[in-house]
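Write out this protein's structure.
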Amino acid sequence: MREPLRDKERLNHILTAIQHVEEYTNGLTQAQLNSDLLHLHATVYNIQIIGEAVYKLSLEFKENHPKTPWKVIEKMRHILVHDYYQINKDVLWSVITEDLSPLKAQAEEYISNL
């Protein structure tokens, strides 16, 4: 059973992983990231962490915060872990450039309200 008391800790894991992705991809184009295996693998790993932390959030917390696409985030983690051999790098880049910033803002908001 997931513990509501640990939701803040999981949200902090999400923020830390997002900060790592920001560091690893700062100033890189998609082509540069795709050709730099060290940064690519580090980025994928941290997106996996985000998905795992989301998965471990309590169901109550996720139900109380429906504006965040929790299921989509969890699904991304499953794809990166289980279908690692067919990662769509365009989708990965979209997550990095379009999805992480709103998630970061939401996680910061949620933490401030806990």
